[in-house]
Amino acid sequence: MAQVSTEVPGDERGTLLAFVEAQRAALREAAQGLTEEQAASRPSVSELSLSGLLKHAAECELNWLRLAQEKPNERMRDEGSWAEAFRLVEGESVPGVLAFWDVVARETEAFITAVPSLDDSFPLPPAPWFPADTKVSMRWLLLHLVEEFARHAGHADIIRESVDGTRAMG
């Protein structure tokens, strides 16, 4: 599990980082105790699996972090590799995905802790769903991660219960 600070300052930055971490933990907990096969299973008509959700969330966080840092994303997906963001491929495992996410989580916390203000902004990439030339704040980034992870934590709860009847903690 990520070594994200457990001592949360009572300020906005610390509170938002704690909410991001709580939603990360909810996703991670949904896969605890499962075999690789169980974590990769798709017990409904959806294409989603627990291991795929973990990978997607980790890569999604990295993508937003790189956008905020205004750096290239070494794991950027394109149309041809998009589906691989939602499933483990050869050589990947749940522990490996979680270790990768730990690194990303620590980097996110260090970056957000170091930015002078949560009002600092960065440009969004051109996309049909973003207005042209839109910039968003670091605060927006953290709230978006909470939203993204919470949505997928709900998916993860349903998948886990479908796999073995266990309800996720969190």
UniProtKB/TrEMBL annotation:
Pfam families cross-referenced by the UniProt entry: MST (PF04978)
Source organism, top-level taxon: Bacteria
SUPFAM superfamilies: DinB/YfiT-like putative metalloenzymes (SSF109854)
InterPro entries: DinB/YfiT-like (IPR034660), MST-like (IPR007061)
UniProt-recorded name of the protein: DinB family protein
Native species: Streptomyces xanthophaeus
